[in-house]
Design goal:
Elements lengths: L1 E5 L4 H16 L3 E7 L3 H6 L3 E5 L12 H23 L5 E4 L4 H11 L3 E5 L20 H30 L7 H10 L4 E3 L16 E3 L15 H8 L5 E3 L9 H15 L3 E4 L12 E4 L4 H4 L5 E4 L3 H9 L4 E3 L6 H10 L14 H13 L1 H15 L3 H13 L2
Parallel strand pairs: 1-2, 1-4, 2-3, 4-5, 5-6, 6-7, 8-9, 8-11, 9-10, 11-12
Helix pairs in contact: 1-14, 3-5, 4-5, 8-12
């Protein structure tokens, strides 16, 4: 059986599916991962077939506010939709669709009769337990949260409207609004597996049947590949350092953020590692080291704390390593995950990116490194996560769906 996993976005929207793909391949399936060309090396290193989708997240990497993000998302999805059918046509018996690609994939499934399953990294279905993960940061009460969640889905459907119109024309399907297709899938009870930990976000009790939280999908990495020698030397040269990185966020802010990070580290009396990322963080000195792409699973257990943008994957990786966080959310779902870290006690209160200073970062670092409660909370979450096997539960769901 040929399975195509389709996802698009930043690295954090793609990397977890490499681990899921490897698990499915180990279960005997032929697995392709369809995403944008930027991530072809990531996919091929996992030993998975790569299928390209025609959009480029790098052109939107400097986007911050929600309004600007929605405009960029509409442009991105229109590009994305143009090649979606081509990727699926390369041989697909089952489509696994991320939250980003599902509003396009549903139409391909209608045209081809291909079965599908949702594999989401964020909770998107409306619930009274918390507000929508992208548009609202504070609870509005149970009724308000559900209402806001429905509005958020309507906003998302508008983002996809042009892409859906063009894709259905290409597939020779009659016109159908994005919202109408979503409603159709909801009435059918379309199954969605959510790849995050219940330690952070338990399954809402008011979700419909078919929406499940299975646990994280961890990015694939070569376990035989050691950390770079210079990084190993730095780690062994003194007390555990703090890692600071913003992943795919903050492009163009590298110089300011690098200076701010170094001043914060020295103000707090801590050694530090700057992970360059899209921002291009860089610094030098006996007490600070700059690194590039290093697997979280190898590095995070070796540090005292992580300063990060609170993307879903990075958030989960800190907890898996029993490491406390200082979350500096930038946009999208990041404020949600940042608040969840603080809620379980594994992070200080979030420091919004727009108000980040060397002084408030240093203060947060002192508290998270010296306050034992943060590390205890992270370790408790790690024990909870160790009992979750998101990849295995997804393989089981695929077998039930396909009978293969």
């Amino acid at each position: 059986m040929r399975i195509m996993i389709a996802t698009a976005g930043s690295r954090g929207d793609v990397a977890p599916y490499t681990g899921l793909g490897v698990a499915l391949r180990g279960a005997g399936y032929d697995v392709a991962l369809a995403t944008t060309d930027t991530f072809e090396p990531l996919v091929r290193r996992a030993g998975l077939e790569f299928r390209g989708l025609p959009a480029d997240t790098r052109s939107h990497s400097g986007v911050r506010g929600n309004r600007e993000m929605l405009r960029a998302a509409a442009s991105f999805t229109t590009e994305l939709g143009q090649g979606f059918a081509d990727a699926a046509a390369m041989g697909t018996d089952l489509l696994l669709l991320s939250a980003t690609t599902a509003p396009l994939g549903w139409h391909v499934c209608e045209a081809t009769g291909t079965p599908s399953l949702g594999v989401y990294l964020q909770p998107t279905a409306p619930t009274g337990h918390f507000p929508p993960v992208v548009t609202v940061t504070r609870s509005l009460g149970r009724l308000g949260n559900r209402t806001a969640g429905r509005l958020a889905l309507r906003m998302a459907d508008r983002v996809y409207e042009d892409a859906v119109t063009r894709l259905r024309a290409r597939l020779s399907l009659p016109p159908l609004r994005a919202s109408a297709m979503r409603a159709r899938r909801e009435r059918a009870g379309w199954p969605v597996l959510h790849g995050f930990s219940t330690a952070l976000a338990p399954r809402p009790s008011d979700w419909r049947p078919g929406l499940e939280v299975v646990g994280p999908w961890w990015p694939h990495h070569d376990t035989a590949r050691p950390l770079p020698d210079r990084l190993e030397d730095f780690l062994r040269a003194g007390p555990r350092p703090v890692l600071i990185g913003f992943g795919s966020m903050a492009a163009g802010d590298g110089e300011r953020l690098s200076d701010l990070a170094v001043r914060a580290l020295r103000r707090a009396g801590l050694r530090g590692i700057l992970q360059s990322g899209s921002a291009g963080l860089t610094a030098a000195g006996n007490d600070v080291l700059t690194v590039g792409d290093v697997p979280h699973a190898l590095l995070f257990p070796r540090v005292a704390a992580v300063v990060h943008h609170a993307g879903a994957g990075t958030t989960a990786a800190t907890l898996r390593a029993s490491v406390p966080s200082v979350a500096v959310p930038v946009t999208a779902d990041q404020p949600f995950w940042a608040s969840r870290l603080a809620r379980i006690g594994a992070a200080t209160a979030p420091v919004p990116f727009g108000s980040l200073t060397a002084e408030n970062l240093a203060d947060a670092l002192r508290r998270v490194v010296t306050g034992p409660s943060y590390a205890r909370a992270a370790a408790e979450a790690a024990r909870h996560m160790a009992a979750e096997d998101g990849a295995a539960r997804t393989v089981e769901a695929v077998r039930r769906l396909t009978g293969a």
